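Quick one: structure tokens for this chain, please?
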Amino acid sequence: MKVMILAAGYGKRLRPFTDHTPKPLAEVVGNSLVGHHLDKLSAAGFQDVVMNLGHLGHKIPEALGDGSDRGLRIAYSDEGPDPLETGGGMAKALPMLGSKPFLLLNGDVWCDLDFAAIPRELPPDDDALLYLVPKPEWRERGDFALSPENRVTESESSELLYAGIAIYHPRILDGAKVEKFSIVPRLRAAISNNRVGGRLHQGDWDDVGTWERLEALRKRIPQKES
């Protein structure tokens, strides 16, 4: 299974750091956020990674290279200075990802999920599998709910948050153009048609959205983590 890492955002809430460095290169315990992802992907047996580039994008390949030092093959999908958002970024990278389901990771999240446990396929009729986490204290409401059958649903009392980790079937992008758009409307349509499965991750997770959360993460992650 191929992997796409979303790394094109501006990271405005981490300014002034992100005025000169892309957010996925923020360091946690001696490694960048995206570096942790890459190490875990390699250890879990993944090999082919596509990473989209946007804000200060040239600095990411300068820092990570072609992935060979980690046993990976990293290709880059450069969106230029005005990122295409999630849907547009996925659509632009799709020729590099192929026709089979692919793993999608947000490049700016921390998670202790065992990547080796991620399935390498989707059920035939599913368009996506989302990893969800319990709603953290800093978030007013959740994104989704999870049925007893592990199907993702939406409700007014959703208590689960999308973890920035998912498997997508390329058909969710059928008819999409390479332009700026969010994947969320297509994802919600798939959810309403019962075509999205879900898994709940109860371990450590953070989207590192602010300096306060980044510093808290740095303090609580053991130094031995890699």
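The mean pLDDT is 90.
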